[in-house]
Design brief:
The protein has one domain. The strands form 3 sheets. An 8-stranded mixed sheet has the order 4-3-9-10-11-8-12-7, with helices on one face. The two termini are 16 Å apart. It has 7 helices and 16 strands. It is α/β, with parallel strands linked by helices and 266 residues long. Helix 1 crosses helix 7.
Length: 266
């Protein structure tokens, strides 16, 4: 595909999947750059662990090419695309496209070294010459957007990684969804609100763990639509990732989004 996209495309805090997209676009003539922000989050584990009332799954790396049939992506918010997306959700009985990959046990994307520039401010990237693309935004980097998650960081006095490991964990129970991971001497919780996080801590073995809340910030993640415009020149991509750890959506996702960008539709 020959690109009609004429600006520089900047990938902010790129995941494995966004790194793959950047390589594809660069090979098709798009000027790409990668950089990190001060609000970037990095998971040190190499697995995603999922637990709900009925099952326990571990997702590891798999380099086998996976195709994703019967998925309806929406590029713009119009009636027809909303109809297709509702049909997709009804067909699969899930709440998001990430849930689809988890439900069907799609593996993680093969890890790759992502070379990024030094940490930058998002405001310095937004210009007439650039388009910024990322899979998540935090309140450390940008304001004036409707965040949909809260991240709480606790410093651990006890060594609990031997029980929980450092992998990215997703737990769904009694209508409550919470995600967490351990990095160094810190545990990070991600949920819809700080109340949910505090309630989970108070009702599990974690209430007996010595830990101190050291940071709290808001998170915006796109788990549904393929690409969403946040403001002029800034786009949030559903790349099936949890920060830097990516599920493998297969070639169809990569090629569909690559064609959309190369067509100059951003």
């Amino acid at each position: 595909m020959k690109s009609k996209f004429t600006k520089q495309l900047v990938f902010l805090n790129p995941s494995v999947n966004l790194n793959k997209l950047a390589v594809l676009l660069e090979n098709n003539g798009v000027n790409v750059a990668m950089c990190k922000s001060h609000g970037g989050v990095k998971v040190s584990g190499n697995k995603v662990v999922y637990k709900d009332e009925s099952r326990y799954e571990v997702f590891r790396f798999d380099i086998v090419s996976i195709m994703l049939p019967d998925i309806f992506y929406k590029f713009s918010d119009n009636f027809l695309n909303r109809f297709f997306y509702r049909r997709f959700l009804k067909k699969n009985g899930i709440n998001s496209s990430i849930d689809y990959l988890i439900k069907n046990r799609f593996p993680l994307s093969e890890p790759k070294l992502i070379a990024c520039d030094n940490k930058v401010e998002i405001g310095s990237l937004l210009s007439e010459k650039n388009v910024v693309m990322t899979s998540y935004l935090t309140s450390k980097d940008i304001g004036g957007v409707n965040f949909n998650k809260v991240v709480a960081e606790y410093k651990l006095s006890d060594n609990i990684d031997k029980f929980l490991g450092n992998d990215y964990a997703i737990v769904k129970s009694n209508g409550v969804n919470i995600e967490f991971f351990i990095k160094d001497q810190y545990i990070y919780f991600i949920a819809d609100s700080i109340d949910i996080i505090e309630n989970v801590i108070s009702k599990t073995f974690l209430k007996n763990v010595n830990m101190e809340l050291v940071d709290k910030f808001e998170l915006l993640r796109n788990d549904t639509t393929m690409i969403k415009k946040i403001k002029k020149g800034l786009y949030l991509v559903n790349d099936y990732s949890f920060f830097n750890v990516s599920l493998n959506p297969g070639k169809q996702w990569l090629e569909a989004l690559g064609r959309y960008i190369c067509a100059g539709k951003l």
